[in-house]
Design brief:
seven-stranded mixed beta sheet; six-stranded mixed beta sheet; 15 strands
Length: about 450
């Protein structure tokens, strides 16, 4: 049995889900989907998948389960391959939220039955598993994905089948799909505030390092446009195949550049090799600093605190975020999975995703996708990262937080945006970004 605080947290979430304070206007067809025919730009990780963990749920119509006492939902993350270091914990927080909701009576009086699948760090596998979840398992919703390559691979599946995906990770923006809710940050809620912070701190000579797929390449295209307009000097730009650990050449390039800071969009195991090699070359954060947007508490242990202490990260949530709801979330997560486990931004966003969907279903009175989409707009929930509001572009308002990694392995917030930032995935409000979203946001 969970401690009373977990129950308290559940009750609070339920109250906020039911007392919807800002329903907003119903969504219309102005949500613009990206080109579903575009294929992901990379292939990495194992193509072999483990047997899925299929919880025996009722076989009902995805749109509106009419019989039985359970509704199937998909949970789709990389449990093997290079991205397992990050994604396994998001699966865990998603299941925690499902368990809490079930303990409180479920959704529309039905228990939520999770069907867990392994995307195996392989983008075609993500697409295949997503289609299985929607068409064979009749999942009312799928929670999953980390890399933008996995999301891009799944997007045409969800649009083609009319399914619904909740995607919990920060991403490069320049996308809106009527079949996806984006509960992580978009560019103007993570990358742009990080760049503003760097300018304010005088860290203007920048080296770009990233994994070779859509998120880092698009993010760096945006960073270059920002730099041209805001006085940053981009000294170099290097990429590694996702999961590649052959970092010696890139690290040598970084060190010889004498940059003030590395803007790091590496993902997965590459981060471990990169920071270890930087340390081996004698670098510290006081010499060449780094700003990472895909390194959170979950990755620190794998990298090693001696290799990353003092470096900067940009997120919207940390385990140390000082809010009562977060204290209760951290306690519940550790009670479920062990005191040595940590929470992190994507972990929290995955947890929030389930509550957003459940609140929208309750408001709509049905599991039908279009009705749930419309009901979600304007929802307000009190979450571990603070007040969360769902925008009509199916992103959420988020407070940016710059953090520094301390010697005890936690991230200490050193700056925040003061209030939640309105999501602007297409960068419509930035003159310097004109033309970047052409063909992707309509």
């Amino acid at each position: 049995m969970r401690p009373p605080s977990c129950k308290h947290l559940l009750a609070l979430f339920t109250v906020f889900a039911l007392l919807l304070t800002a329903c907003g206007s119903e969504t219309e067809d102005e949500s613009t989907a990206t080109d579903g025919s575009a294929e992901p730009t990379d292939e990495a990780g194992s193509t072999d998948t483990e047997d899925s963990t299929d919880v025996d749920g009722a076989e009902e119509d995805v749109a509106a389960p009419a019989t039985g006492d359970a509704v199937p939902v998909g949970v789709l993350h990389s449990l093997s391959g290079t991205m397992a270091i990050s994604e396994t914990a998001v699966r865990d927080s998603t299941l925690l939220a499902i368990n809490e909701i079930n303990e409180n009576g479920g959704v529309l009086g039905m228990q939520i039955e999770p069907i867990v699948e392994d995307g195996a760090s392989d983008w075609p596998t993500f697409a295949e598993r997503a289609e299985k979840l929607i068409t064979t398992d009749e999942a009312a919703v799928v929670f999953g994905g980390w890399t933008s390559a996995s999301r891009k691979a799944m997007l045409p599946v969800f649009e083609g089948t009319g399914g619904l995906l909740f995607y919990p990770v920060q991403y490069e923006g320049l996308e809106q799909s009527p079949n996806i809710f984006y509960t992580g940050a978009t560019t103007n809620q993570q990358i742009i505030p990080a760049l503003d912070y760097m300018v304010e701190e005088g860290l203007t000579d920048v080296y770009l390092v990233g994994s070779d797929y859509v998120f880092p390449r698009t993010a760096n295209k945006i960073i270059q446009a920002y730099a041209d307009a805001n006085g940053l000097n981009i000294l170099g730009e290097d990429y590694l195949p996702l999961g590649d650990t052959n970092v010696a050449t890139i690290v040598s390039n970084v060190v010889s550049s004498e940059a003030d800071i590395v803007f790091n969009t590496l993902n997965g195991d590459s981060n471990v090799a990169f920071f270890k090699e930087l340390t081996a070359k004698g670098n510290t954060s006081e010499q060449i600093q780094s700003m990472s947007v895909s390194v959170a508490e979950e990755e620190i242990a794998g990298i090693g605190i001696d290799n990353i202490e003092g470096h900067l990260v940009s997120w919207n949530y940390y385990q140390t975020t000082d809010l009562p709801r977060n204290d209760e979330f951290v306690e519940a997560f550790k009670a479920e999975y062990g005191e040595d486990r940590v929470t992190a931004d994507p972990i929290e966003a995955g947890y929030n995703s389930v509550y957003i969907w459940a609140a929208a279903v309750e408001k709509a009175g049905t599991f039908e996708v279009e009705a749930v989409r419309e009901a979600a707009v304007g929802l307000e929930l009190d979450t571990p990262e603070g007040l969360l509001t769902v925008d009509d572009n199916q992103h959420v308002y988020k407070t940016n937080r710059i953090g520094v990694i301390r010697d005890v392995g936690v991230i200490e917030e050193v700056w925040n945006s003061g209030e939640p930032i309105e999501p602007d995935p297409c960068l419509a409000n930035y003159e310097w970004a004109e033309g970047l979203a052409q063909g992707e946001c309509g």
